[in-house]
Design brief:
Strand order of the largest sheet: 1-2
Distance between the termini: 30 Å
Radius of gyration: 19 Å
Number of strands: 2
Oligomer: single chain
Structural class: mainly alpha
Largest sheet: 2 strands, antiparallel
Strand content: 5-15%
Shape: globular
Helix content: over 70%
Low-confidence stretches: none
Mean pLDDT: 79
Number of helices: 14
Number of domains: 1
Length: about 290
């Protein structure tokens, strides 16, 4: 999830769905409420830990933060130098996950409408032109709150939303330099947005599970436009540090030669990884039932 969240166009929520931990993630985050505060106030530490699934959440957050800190440099380097190969791999991951997750969706009229709405919303979102906003603490705070909502949705990239808001490069540089002036308000915004949004999403999954899954499948399908590896830059600019920022691009046909073969191989690896994880989860589930 951490490595995916670093890349604009790829969703950490998609990775959670692929890895089979999405439902547990929503349940754990939704435990941060007034009841949790009451448990902490009365010293009921075990009950409080169980409410937020601490045995699940701690290693998950440790892995996520470790990936961001360790991989932010190589992932951003790949994004700048070899974007075709990076996005080919993620494209395969998303295509494979769409096929697997779609099995749990409701495919009646309501499900098809939900999927179409999700695909249209994601397409409009990923084709937005980045804007320029200040980097003051308040703007960074609400940018983090909005971005984390996108990060938890499969197919909607929080990093790309930061790019749209003109905050991506600023936040990535803050992560590399461990700048608390940016990281503290950003983290507070992420925590606020996550706790508020997860409750809504969990309620939708409980009330209209099949239709909500179809909506999420639509989000993922609509995001494929942004993850397509082969692109032509139509408009770009440079930020204050001299780095190229793509403002507008378009899909391009795959080129002939070795780069296409490598991209196809990486896409196939992405699909195989998703299928392999699904198979492994099934085997573990069968083994636990047998035990």
């Amino acid at each position: 999830m951490g490595s995916a969240d670093v890349v604009p166009g790829v969703s950490g929520g998609s990775m959670a769905f692929i890895l089979g931990i999405y439902g547990q993630l929503l349940e754990a985050v939704s435990g941060f409420d007034l009841q949790l505060l009451a448990l902490l106030r009365h010293g009921r530490w075990r009950a409080a830990a169980a409410r937020v699934h601490l045995d699940f959440l701690v290693p998950l957050l440790a892995g996520l933060l470790s990936a961001v800190l360790i991989l932010v440099r190589p992932i951003t380097w790949l994004y700048e130098v070899h974007p075709v190969f990076l996005f080919a791999f993620f494209f395969g991951l998303i295509v494979g996950s769409i096929v697997l997750i779609a099995r749990h969706a409701h495919w009646g009229v309501s499900g098809l409408v939900a999927m179409a709405a999700g695909a249209a919303a994601a397409f409009v979102f990923v084709t937005r032109v980045p804007v320029t906003l200040p980097h003051d603490p308040f703007t960074v705070f609400w940018s983090g709150a909005v971005a984390i909502m996108a990060m938890i949705l499969p197919g909607v990239s929080g990093s790309f939303l930061l790019l749209v808001l003109g905050q991506y490069q600023h936040v990535m540089e803050a992560v590399k330099g461990l700048d608390p002036a940016t990281l503290v308000p950003f983290a507070l915004g992420c925590a606020t947005g996550l706790i508020a949004f997860v409750r809504l999403l969990r309620w939708l999954l409980e009330r209209w599970h099949g239709q909500t899954v179809a909506l999420l499948v639509g989000f993922m399908a609509g995001s494929l436009w942004k993850i397509w590896p082969f692109r032509t830059v139509l408009e770009s600019t440079h930020n204050a540090r001299g780095k190229l920022i793509v403002l507008r691009d378009a899909l391009a046909a795959p080129p002939d030669g070795g780069s296409l073969a490598v991209a196809l191989l990486l896409g196939a690896v992405g699909v195989a990884l998703v299928v392999g994880l699904e198979w492994l989860q099934h085997r573990v589930g069968v083994a636990e039932m047998g035990g």
